[in-house]
Fold this protein.
Amino acid sequence: MASERRYMVYGIGNGLVDKQVKITDSELEDLRLSKGYMELAEQAEQARILAYLGNRESELHAGGSAANTVVGMAQMGGTVAYTCSLAADELGRHYADDFARLGIRLASNLKPTVQTGLCLVLVTPDGERTMKTYLGASAQLTPEDIDAETLAQSQWVYLEGYLLAGESTRAASFHALELARQHGTKIAFSFSDGFLVANFGEHVKTIVTEYADLVFANELEAAAYTGRRDPQESLEMIVRDCRNACVTCSENGSYIHYRGETCYVPAVTTQPVDLTGAGDMYAAGVLYGLSMHAAPERAARLGSRAASYVVRQMGARLPGDLRETVRDILEGNG
């Protein structure tokens, strides 16, 4: 079903290159890192970890949480756009070329800074990922970087919670929210990480209660926001603040509350290799489905299927496209 607006989603987030490395639990302990969390790092601290890892096998992917969602939607056949802050270096140019190949409008200027941001993703044998992120150029995103014309031409604007961690990126986020309100663009917001909810809860609360039309959270992030461990209870509390929400529970499925109705969708059974990007791909499926006016339950099933594909591989980027999966699920066969 076509939309009068040019883009399904205009994503705004970090522009990071993900470096995926397999690591043991004991090595994670040696590095004194908190398993399963994303923590910001100075360049020197990240360099210390890289030195510890040595020359072991790794994979590089152009990423960032909201970027992963936008890429997923493009692979589903959606017309999407993205804004982030990149450096005028080899990684930044590679990132821009990658998005151009995917047909994604990248409304970003390369900036003269030291380095494009790098997210070091350490993956343990159970598939859990622990991230140490040097934001680099990503931290330079400003309100002036937000493309008002692109935002006005989009059904949804999608913001990642990670942007709340910096003063400049936070200002850019709230500028985008105000523009979305002015242009009647729906707002989807991802909590991104329990760390963000715990440390920037005031800003999260403001977005959820005053701006968002749809919230995405996993059960740990939802618990950090509501103080409730049970994901269904967390969902009920979140929708008191925002009328639509999704809470994902890993292998235990997900809940979507949309337009007054709640649906539970079971997870697709798979053997996890790397959980990086699972929530991002779930959001891609939900936003694509809702943009195509699919039933919320179908949209959540699309998200669940896409998430199952990404967790059984290393990295958050899927090869090929997802058009066949979209047809299968949105037509009611999956």
